[in-house]
Automatic annotation (TrEMBL):
<feature type="domain" description="Peptidase M1 alanyl aminopeptidase C-terminal">
    <location>
        <begin position="546"/>
        <end position="872"/>
    </location>
</feature>
<dbReference type="Pfam" id="PF17432">
    <property type="entry name" value="DUF3458_C"/>
</dbReference>
<dbReference type="InterPro" id="IPR037144">
    <property type="entry name" value="Peptidase_M1_pepN_C_sf"/>
</dbReference>
<keyword id="KW-0031">Aminopeptidase</keyword>
<dbReference type="InterPro" id="IPR012779">
    <property type="entry name" value="Peptidase_M1_pepN"/>
</dbReference>
<comment type="similarity">
    <text>Belongs to the peptidase M1 family.</text>
</comment>
<feature type="domain" description="Peptidase M1 alanyl aminopeptidase Ig-like fold">
    <location>
        <begin position="452"/>
        <end position="542"/>
    </location>
</feature>
<dbReference type="InterPro" id="IPR038438">
    <property type="entry name" value="PepN_Ig-like_sf"/>
</dbReference>
<dbReference type="GO" id="GO:0008270">
    <property type="term" value="F:zinc ion binding"/>
</dbReference>
<dbReference type="InterPro" id="IPR042097">
    <property type="entry name" value="Aminopeptidase_N-like_N_sf"/>
</dbReference>
<feature type="domain" description="Aminopeptidase N-like N-terminal">
    <location>
        <begin position="21"/>
        <end position="185"/>
    </location>
</feature>
<dbReference type="InterPro" id="IPR045357">
    <property type="entry name" value="Aminopeptidase_N-like_N"/>
</dbReference>
<dbReference type="Pfam" id="PF01433">
    <property type="entry name" value="Peptidase_M1"/>
</dbReference>
<dbReference type="InterPro" id="IPR024601">
    <property type="entry name" value="Peptidase_M1_pepN_C"/>
</dbReference>
<dbReference type="GO" id="GO:0006508">
    <property type="term" value="P:proteolysis"/>
</dbReference>
<dbReference type="InterPro" id="IPR014782">
    <property type="entry name" value="Peptidase_M1_dom"/>
</dbReference>
<dbReference type="InterPro" id="IPR001930">
    <property type="entry name" value="Peptidase_M1"/>
</dbReference>
Length: 872
């Protein structure tokens, strides 16, 4: 229960070369026989072997077939009397565990009468005693034995080499993984599952079997996941020359899972949310998410599995790189430049609404953290999404081709190894001598070691035909890091002329605190377009005039900055209202600009939808020193109402124009049309609320009933709920009735109600009563997230109540969940990260609620780390 520091890394004192596991699967008591070949690491001074364990029952330990003395040090099994010398010895350990009682969903657990495992980061020690650390890599042979009727399917990593029947209605399967791997990539699955399968031949001419396993009724929802997997295999080989290295690649879906999915070698285990999709049950967003998560886990087969992390501080080595790869995959599949830009904007929106606040809060940490109490708390947007931006900047600094060379160098150098973030950056730089990256490598690596979001302040000057942009960087202090050194910041820029045409452009690779871009020979003052494509994960502080932003919105050739101009116009208006009287009347220039985007003859519907969506409340709140979430919410609602009413005719046009999309296909073009039609319908229902009109809510209800697909149906339902129309009640009831047996759809039903706009404090009572609903189950992470997280983490206007009732509810749920599943509880605990920014009386009430949780005696490490950092 002590803090672990990166600086304390020591290589393992022993190596484990082979592991032969035999499981007798039983939900109440599973028996695990673990036979290992172990040898001393000659590089390390002789010392006892200390094996990790957690909630195991130990029955027997044999060394070279003989009983041996051992002792326990906390959860560790310590063996002192081992054979002398460096020769390998046999170590045999027999333990039992209780999968049905495993509510933490780490290690071996049951879900719907099937067995699943989750070992990353430290779950393997809940299955057997082991050196449960990623730099110990072994060859695995796994035998599974279980009742044949109850568990007809028995899966593990690698290839099936033997199977057959045993006595008493039991059967067995034996699997051999041809690749050495760290224990966190071990997996097994057993149960009544069915699979969709597909044989493919790769570019290089090898045959592979792809399988997607689900429960019997779900097979018709696996086509999209399979197509995404086929596309992933093809993409990695085409773009990076990385082929599938297995004869068989399996995906298995389970409805009880702590996160999205897991890249176990050859046997990925997924949350059903990222596998199952049909047009009737899944939205376009679900389809896109499945594509990207299937891609992400598949890409880990190289970036993570073939080359893995030396220790968990290096987590971004595999996660940042793999997020970057899945983002590129989705962009490449999207195709056209405009669709790529939409994906880029969506990714940046996640970074800025989730990672920037993390970087500014009590849990701020570098992409490569220095310390942790519980590693599960560091699977964060910083390690993942900011990590991906750090990889993206490396690509920017060496060019796309240079990056492909760099990645090839990385895999060639480190295949089969457990390495560090330094090794990664070094390989990319070495493959690109003379590049900005190679020339500034040590400084660039500050992106891995310094936490916090850098600010780049831009000031401009125009004199005698010369335009100067002065850029100054700084980075605010974060916990444990008071002062920061300058970063390497690639700033993509352009100048837009008075006539709307591009007059200059380039890439300024900042290495100094302050640098100036100078362009001569200009006839008139241009408008600067800075940080194009969001070329670095920084806050650009630029005091643009409305006229400049309107010019960029109209003319910029960079779609990202076009969108960004609209965001800035929106944020400015929201901030003015929040800081002022709370009321603001939208000006004609802004409304006219929004109208011309909405009506634009050439722009994609998906892009229009992004431009016309106001900045999120959390993003706006980050721009304030003191936050009253209810006020932020009220202001955003008021702006949205004005946008709805002032553009009513245009929204009606947009709805009618985009609502029909022919037969349902989840492609980007038709999904973009559905998204814009949905946004239009929401605005039409909002406008109807103030005008008293009943036509549009009626149309929305009709649409809700008649829709041919979940996207249109859910958008219509949400339009009624968001606008608070009375038809939302019958619609919600009907929706529940239609999708009674569809767990993932019921999650949407819970989430929509918990995330609804607050009207006089009505959301919390709804959430409380939904906790009593027969379909609610706190032990199922998806369901807990859909109700409790949707309220506490995603509905600030309803959660932050002056009477503190939201915080009391939060504290109760954190404590309740901590007894069931600490990982999920700790995520919920983070809903309070930004409490110090709250206005009174919320701030004091929040501190009190956090202190109440922190005072509980036997908190998990997970929750304890989050709440103590929050109070520090
Ligand atoms: N590597 C896993 C995450 C494991 C989380 C453990 N708490 C999924 C992924 O990033 O692909
Ligand atoms: Zn990952």
């Amino acid at each position: 229960n002590a803090v672990i520091y990166r600086a304390d890394y020591q290589p393992p004192a022993y190596w484990i070369d082979t592991v032969d596991l035999c499981f007798d699967l039983d939900p109440a008591k599973t028996r695990v026989l673990n036979k290992m070949k172990v040898r001393r690491n000659p590089q390390v001074a002789p010392q006892p072997l200390k094996l990790d364990g957690d909630e195991l029952n130990l029955a027997r330990v044999l060394v070279n077939g003989q009983g041996t003395s051992f002792k326990m040090e906390g959860d560790r099994l310590v063996l002192e009397n081992l054979p002398e010398g460096d020769a390998p010895f046999d170590l045999e350990i027999f333990t039992t565990c209780a999968p049905a009682k495993n509510s933490k969903l780490m290690g071996l657990y049951t879900s719907n009468d099937s067995f699943f495992t989750q070992c990353e980061a430290e779950g393997f020690r809940r299955i057997t005693y082991f050196l449960d650390r990623p730099d110990v890599m072994a060859s695995y042979t796994v035998t599974l034995r279980a009742d044949k009727q109850k568990y007809p399917v028995l899966l593990s990593n690698g290839n099936l080499v033997d199977q057959g029947d045993l006595d008493d209605g039991r059967h067995f399967a034996k699997w051999v993984d041809p690749h050495r791997k760290p224990s966190y990539l071990f997996a097994l699955v057993a149960g009544q599952l069915v699979c969709r399968e597909q044989k493919i031949t790769s570019r290089s001419g090898n045959d592979h079997l792809l399988q997607v396993y689900v429960r019997a009724g779900d097979l018709d929802k696996t086509e999209h996941a399979m197509n995404s997997l086929i596309a992933s295999v093809a993409w990695d080989e085409a773009r990076f020359g990385l082929p599938l290295d297995l004869e068989r690649f399996m995906i298995v879906a389970t409805s009880d899972f702590n996160m999205g999915a897991m890249e176990n070698k050859g046997l990925n285990i997924f949350n059903t949310k990222y596998v199952l999709a049909s047009q009737a049950t899944a939205t376009d967003t679900d389809f896109m998410n499945i594509e990207s998560v299937v891609g992400h886990e598949y890409f880990h087969n190289w970036s993570g599995n073939r080359v893995t992390c030396r220790d968990w501080f290096q987590l971004s080595l595999k996660e940042g790189l793999t997020v970057f790869r899945d983002q590129e995959f989705s962009q490449d599949l999207a195709g056209e430049a405009s669709a790529r830009a939409v994906k880029r904007i969506e990714d940046v929106r996640v970074l800025r609404t989730a990672q920037f606040p993390e970087d500014a809060g009590p849990m701020a940490h570098p992409v490569r953290p220095e310390q942790y109490l519980e590693i599960n708390n560091f699977y964060t947007v910083t390690v993942y999404e900011k990590g991906a931006e750090v990889v993206r900047m490396q690509q920017t600094l060496v060019g796309r081709e240079g990056f492909e060379k760099g990645l090839a160098q990385y895999f060639q150098r480190h295949d089969g190894q457990a390495v560090t973030c330094d090794d990664f950056a070094q390989a990319i730089a070495d493959a690109n001598p003379g590049s900005h990256l190679a020339n500034n490598l040590e400084q660039f690596k500050r992106w891995y070691s310094q936490a916090g979001t850098p600010r780049v302040k831009a000031t401009t000057r125009f004199e005698n035909g010369t335009y100067e942009i002065t850029l100054s960087q700084s980075c605010p202090p974060t916990p444990g890091q008071a002062a920061k050194e300058p970063f390497v910041i690639p700033v993509a820029w352009g100048l837009v002329g008075a006539d709307g045409r591009e007059v200059a452009g380039g890439m300024q690779v900042m290495t100094q605190a302050t640098e100036t871009i100078r362009v001569d020979g200009l006839a008139s003052e241009p408008v600067p377009s800075l940080l194009r494509g969001f070329s670095a994960p920084v806050v650009l502080e630029w005091d643009a005039t409305d006229a400049q932003l309107l010019a960029l919105l109209e003319h910029d050739t960079d779609p990202f900055n076009r969108w960004e101009a609209a965001q800035r116009l929106g944020v400015r208006r929201m901030l003015d209202a929040i800081r002022g009287s709370g009321a603001i009347t939208l000006d004609d220039a802004y409304l006219q600009a929004m109208r011309s985007i909405l009506r634009h003859p050439k722009l994609d519907a998906a892009f229009k939808e992004l431009v016309l969506t106001l900045p999120a409340e959390t993003y706006v709140s980050e721009q304030l020193d003191e936050v009253d979430p209810q006020r932020v919410h009220a202001v955003r609602e008021s702006l949205r109402e004005q946008l709805a009413s002032a553009l009513a005719g245009d929204w009606a046009w947009a709805y009618e124009e985009h609502k029909e999309n022919g037969a349902y296909r989840p492609d980007h073009v038709s999904a973009g049309r559905r998204a814009l039609a949905g946004l239009a319908l929401t605005h039409l229902c909002i406008a109807a609320r103030s005008s008293g009109d009943t036509v549009w809510p009626g149309k929305a209800y009709q649409r809700f009933k008649d829709a041919s697909n979940m996207t249109d149906r859910f958008n219509a339902l949400s339009a009624l709920v968001v606008s608070g129309h009375e038809l939302s009640r019958p619609a919600l009831d009907r929706f529940h009735g239609m999708f009674r047996g569809e767990a993932l759809v019921l999650d949407k039903w819970f989430a929509l109600q918990a995330g609804a706009p607050d009207r006089g404090g009505n959301v919390l009572p709804v959430v409380r009563s939904l906790m009593q609903h027969p379909d609610f189950n706190l032990r199922n992470p998806n369901r807990a997230r859909s109700l409790i997280f949707s309220y506490c983490s995603a509905n600030p206007g309803a959660f932050h109540r002056a009477d503190a009732a939201g915080y009391v509810f939060w504290g109760d749920r954190v404590l309740e969940l901590d007894g069931v599943n600490p990982q999920v509880a700790a995520r919920l605990a983070r809903a309070m990260d930004r409490w110090r920014k709250l206005a009174e009386p919320m701030r004091s009430a929040a501190r009190e609620a956090i202190a109440r949780v922190a005072a509980k005696p036997d908190l998990s490490n997970d929750v304890r780390e989050v709440v103590t950092r929050a109070l520090a």
